[in-house]
Amino acid sequence: MKITQQDVEHVARLARLTLEPQELEMMTGQMDAILGYVDKLNELDTEGIEPTAHAVPMSNAFRADEKKSSIGIERALQNAPERDGSCYKVPKVIE
Question: What is the CATH number of domain 5-41?
C-alpha cells in the first residue's frame, strides 16, 4: 500500500496540523510503513478466530458482593471535624 504526500496533507488538514516540508516527507514515510504493516497483517488467515478485546484471557478480578452490617453512625462520624446530631456539619459554600 502506497500513501502519497497529498494523502498525508489531507489527513494533516483534517487534524488541523501544519506540517513543514521535511515533516511532511517524514510523516509520509512513517504512515506508509504503518499501512504496509497493516496490509501484511491482512494476509493472515483469521478464519475461525474469534475477535477479542485483549491479547490474553481476562476475567473479572472483583470479589462477589457480600451482605455486611453497617459500621454505625458513631464510628462513621468519629473523625468528623463537626457534627450536628447524626450528620456531618460542613461550612456553607453557596451564598
Answer: 1.10.20.60
